[in-house]
UniProtKB/TrEMBL annotation:
Protein's recorded name: Monothiol glutaredoxin-S7
Species, as recorded: Cardamine amara subsp. amara
Family: Belongs to the glutaredoxin family. CC-type subfamily.
GO cellular component entries: cytoplasm
InterPro entries: GlrX-like_pln_2 (IPR011905), Glutaredoxin (IPR002109), Glutaredoxin_subgr (IPR014025), Thioredoxin-like_sf (IPR036249)
Domain (Glutaredoxin): residue spans on this chain: 13-75
């Protein structure tokens, strides 16, 4: 848990992803298209990825990827991020944490 807390607190936007997950790809593309430079951890490529995935599950991430943290807070997965984007809450949230300067 401490390792995860350190990972999510170091950057304003953190995405936990897997290369094999199409929803992860969609969420990463959304953030990049918005002009955000998120820190992305590919759990199927990094050391201790399985352990981090188990910790994400304990935090309530279901499915475990994509898991998006903004300003150190868990936003959720693809459904939650897309809902925020569609109701125009995502961009103001990104601006508040300094991830976007539009």
């Amino acid at each position: 848990m401490e390792k995860l807390q350190k990972m999510i607190s170091e950057k304003s936007v953190v995405i936990f992803s897997k290369n094999s997950c199409c929803m992860s790809h969609t969420i990463k593309t959304l953030f990049l298209d918005l002009g955000v430079n998120p820190t992305i951890y590919e759990l199927d490529e990094i050391n201790r990825g399985k352990e981090i995935e188990q910790t994400l599950a304990q935090l309530g991430c279901s499915p475990t990827v994509p898991a998006v943290f903004i300003g150190g807070q868990l936003v959720g997965g693809a459904n939650q991020v897309m809902s925020l984007h569609l109701n125009r809450s995502l961009i103001p949230m990104l601006k508040r944490v300094g991830a976007l300067w539009l």
